[in-house]
Amino acid sequence: MTTLPLDPLTRKKIHRFRSIKRGYYSAIFLAAAILLSFGAELFVNSRALIVRYEGRFHFPTYGSILPGTTFGLDYRYETKYRELKRKFKAEGRGNWVLLPPAPYNAYENDLTEGIYPPTAPDAGSGHWLGTDSTGRDVLARLVYGFRTAIVFSILLLLCNYTIGVTIGCAMGYFGGKFDLFFQRIIEIWANVPFLYIIIIVASIMIPNFFTLMMIMLFFGWIQMTWYMRTATYKQKSREYVLAARAMGASDPYIIFQHIIPNTISIIVTFMPFSISSGVVVLTSLDYLGFGLPAPTPSWGELLRQGTSNLDALWIVSSVVVSMILLLTMVTFVGEAVREAFDPKKHTVYE
Amino acid sequence: MKRILSLIVAAALTGIACSKKAEEAPKAEPGSERTAAAGIYKDGLDELFKHPKLARADALPKGIQWLTNDSDPVFASPNAKKGGTYYTYMDSFPLTLRTVGPDSNGSFRSFLFDNQMDLLHIHPETGNLTPGLATHWATNKEQNTLYLKLDERARWSDGVPVSAYDVAFSLKFYLSKEIVAPWYNTQYGEEYDTITVFDDHTVAIKSVNKRNLQDLVYYATMEIRPRHFHEKLLDKDWVKNTNWMIEPNTGPYQISKIEKGKFVTFARKKDWWAKDLKYFKNRFNTDFTKVTVIRDPNVVFEHFKKGMIDALPLVIPEYWHNKATGEPFDKGYIEKVWFYHQRPQPIYGVYFNQDVEILKDKDVRIGISHALNIDKVLKTVLRGDYVRMETNTLGHGAMDNKTIKGRRFDLAKADAHFKKAGWAERGPDGIRVKNGKRLSLRVTYGYATHADRLVILKEEAKKAGLELTLQKLDGAASFKAMLEKQHEIAYTGWGAQDRMQYWGQYHSDNAHKTQTNNFGNVDDKVLDPWLVAYKDEFDLKKKAELAHKIQQRIHDEAYTVTLWAAPYIRFGHWRWMRFPDPVASMRSKDATTYPFDGDWGGVFWIDEDIKKETQAAMKAGKGFPPVTLIDTRHKRG
């Protein structure tokens, strides 16, 4: 009964998943967005993609900074490529700069004297979604914020599920005192006010990406244990487990080879919702000011700026629209996964 | 002393407010004292003078030269009209109507405080002392005693005359344990030596410290309390019993109506004893002042735009430039005022913790000073409204060393100083390195709203090869981290002080230990003696010289970088609210926020005719020419 990649049941599930169009396309779109966000430096960045200077090519996107002196400028800090482009164009000596479509990074303040941020979207300046209240590009912050949020929630999900599934399975499988003990632990754990803990921790130290994840992990693993415990109890009493045991299979073998593959539908069904809740939690913490430290680009921080600058509608609308799109698509995917893995469609209970 | 109080934000850890329900605040019932209403209250004087810090004497020492002031210019407008109601707001309802004791330290307290007149006031233009409850004053040769002659006309709101016994009683009151106010107990205990009463209206306040006259008045005068009201109440239940009592006062207004959780209304005393005195005439004009609770700042603004409150401070650039625009402003219903004053400013600065190895080097500190692009912050997110704070005082007149100019953003100079300190190399990310260590420093701060300023400093500092990482903690936690010296660079603001103090922040006694304000761990043997001398000096000229030397040294050694200040008041007001010329005072508080302030409060008036005219125009959709008054007479630089 193991689920091998191409076993007929899996194929059936994939087929079913594909047939739910909106979930399928959402999945493709999301996967593409996540993949693209890993290469965000190529699309949204203040560093140029290619610089042609005095017959030589430079590719500044990745790696060390290239100080202004590299291109015959009089400063030693990082080259301002947008200015460089204008300069080369004006000189007309065959040097050229190729900038990404959105030529700003998420940190720099594009401030001109006399013009006060936030500034409205303007294709001419390259601020496709305008700037925030310190003159940073909203699109850049949105894209890099997305990457942070999605990586955060995927990593969080992996850690949560590893712990949750292991403990939940163990509880269900071993039962008895072990089960009782962990049930009590979890009940106590679940009653610790999670938000307060975060607030307390955030006020005494800078929560960085990993500490924040550790704190959330501290409380996040609980949810899966209950489901896994129940599912394991159910599977444990099935004949194939008894058969395996009669044949002398070890406990870990039974858990990993028999029980987990048969409860995979639960795990997979919960995944998209866990991802969206991860994004939501991170965003709301950032919104409240207890999340990632400034100036890390984040949706929550954008949302906060947006709500306090309602007259700068482009800030709040871009983050709200992105948020709605992301969460809707994740929900579609989740819905399709649930349908595809619905045991009633494939399994016949004796 | 009252002025010091308003600066101190004490954490009210004194427990939960008494939940006694009092639908209507009970009127003071002084019982047998009522008979004394016509005359000075003299019951139980022998008991009063048993207090170790109170004394009686028959004759004044010889050679006292009484001073008074009736020659300074009048600043209130003769055009002021009496009548109308001034509508203003508070962000939460007070937990008590007491002005001392638990839970009394809220923002509403100033409304009550200011209606207790000071013994002496300060002229809002000249800065000289002017009469308050006292008409004449003097000091002795030793410069430690203030002699006062009280105004015989002064009356409490219940008609009882104000007397020297009230002054004496006030000290006993502030030192008593029953008021549950430890700050007063210690502070007044350390400041006041004795109060001596000579007759019904003459009193001497002796300080423990030797001070010049202005300082003596500043430190050694207090809010006078009505003895006939408090003496009988002053027992272990005083805090509970007086929670919602209306204390008799000497100022222009008294509470007339309270609806708990909603509003407090003050009514003008029609026969206020000081109403025709030179410096009080044509002031305190509105018949009523209604203070309504509005909890959310955005809602406050909406109320203001609808004319439900008459005036609103607009100091924050975003308010002035963005929010305060649109119909009521363009059509001239609301007028805007921007008035530069010369009041002491809060000090915003970055403090280099010199216990951090990198920051021990003076050249690094100077390098960082040149790597902070403060001008860019001023010109961009602060919209050019704020000014650069050149040194660590502003608004203290002669005490400010005006020759110092703060270090400007200058990559060449930063580079030179960093190089001198051995930070010549730059790593692959453009940040300087020395022996494998990056020039990266953590900036600890506690103001979420200042994040936009800091990210600009951070981004610009990269150009100089300096990395600043920002550590945002919540307000209390950041202050705690700094007190414990856990910061590398502290970004913080110190509340405006009427009298600049340096010892706490710069003396070596406070360095390398926790729970002190020496955030830089400054340990400078050159500076130390000056700091001590400054603290003890009472001659204003010598004190100023020392202050200049101290400021120069702090600048030369780059112990701190001071950032910016907003040396102005800015507000909007409906056009029916009228002001004298000038609309504000260069040295006093804003009258719209502190309408009862003794020095400058109550100078405005509500013109009912203009109000009707404006309301009719609004109905008809008609407008008036928009008014924005910018007064730069007292602007510096």
Notes on the protein architecture:
The complex is a heterodimer of chains A (350) and B (637). By secondary structure, chain A is an all-alpha fold. Chain A folds into two domains: 8-39 and 139-346, MetI-like (MetI-like fold, Orthogonal Bundle), CATH 1.10.3720; 46-99, no CATH class. Chain A is 63% helix and 3% strand. Chain A has helices spanning 8-19, 21-38, 81-91, 138-174, 176-190, 194-204, 209-220, 222-236, 239-246, 251-288, 299-308, 313-341, 343-346, and strands spanning 50-53, 56-58, 96-98. A three-stranded antiparallel sheet of chain A has the order 2-1-3. In chain A, strand 1 and strand 2 (56-58) form a beta hairpin. In chain A, helix 4 packs antiparallel against helix 5 and helix 10 (251-288) packs parallel to helix 11 (299-308). The longest helix of chain A is centred in the last third of the chain and has 38 residues, at 251-288. Chain A is elongated. By secondary structure, chain B is α+β, with helices and mostly antiparallel strands. Among the domains of chain B are: 2-68 and 134-243, Alpha-Beta Complex (Dipeptide-binding Protein, domain 1), CATH 3.90.76; 310-342 and 567-631, no CATH class; 347-502 and 558-565, Dipeptide-binding Protein, Domain 3 (Dipeptide-binding Protein, domain 3). In chain B, 26% of the residues lie in helices and 19% in strands. Chain B is built from 20 helices and 27 strands. In chain B, the strands form eight sheets. Chain B has a five-stranded mixed sheet. In chain B, a hairpin with a 6-residue loop joins strand 3 and strand 4. In chain B, helix 12 packs antiparallel against helix 14 (411-420) and helix 18 packs antiparallel against helix 19 (540-556). Residues 5-37 of chain B have low confidence and may be disordered. Chain A binds chain B through residues 63-65, 67, 75-78, 107-109, 111, 113, 116-117, 133-136, 202-204, 206, 289, 293-295, 309, 311, and chain B through 318, 321-322, 376, 379-381, 383, 411, 415, 426, 428-430, 448, 451-452, 454-456, 458-459, 462-465, 469-474, 476-477.
